[in-house]
Amino acid sequence: xxxxSDAVEFESPFVDGLRDIFENKIVFNRVLGLKITSLxxxxxxxxxxxxxxxxxxxxxxxxxxxxxxxxxxxxGGLAVMAAIGARHMDEPPSQRLQRFGKLGTIDLxxxxxxxxxxxxxxxxxxxxxxGSRVASTRMxxxxxxxxxxxxxxxAYIVS
Length: 159
Hints:
Elements: H1 12-25, H2 27-32, E1 35-39, E2 44-49, E3 58-59, E4 62-63, H3 65-87, H4 93-97, E5 104-112, E6 120-130, E7 134-143, E8 148-157
Antiparallel strand pairs: 1-2, 2-6, 3-4, 5-8, 6-7, 7-8
Protein name: Medium/long-chain acyl-CoA thioesterase YigI
GO molecular function: fatty acyl-CoA hydrolase activity
Family: Belongs to the YigI thioesterase family.
């Protein structure tokens, strides 16, 4: 059975606006170098590259667990933004982009499965449930070789 969001295709102004918020206006995401690689209502994806100048976040070419957690948290939030955007397609893109001001993490769980060693990392996130007040997400963190390195779940306040 198809979800209602499967038929939704975001307009360029919404995608560009959300990309600007996520990659540029959220300073921590900019410091991490977090980039959106896919933005669909049912799943979002991102990527970070290993940065040698952020010595405090990286140890011996291993990505620190705090960076992994923050990255997965950010991607979970992005998935919620996409789901909210898909839910309100009757509104113009500029109005939908205003809906994210009160979004915040209320619970986060990360399972670290193996050391995050590599030149870059890719993440995926999807919303399991979008309620009127709380959204639940699943997130995955992959190495350049495609191996799952960490997995997480999160709950976000949306109202």
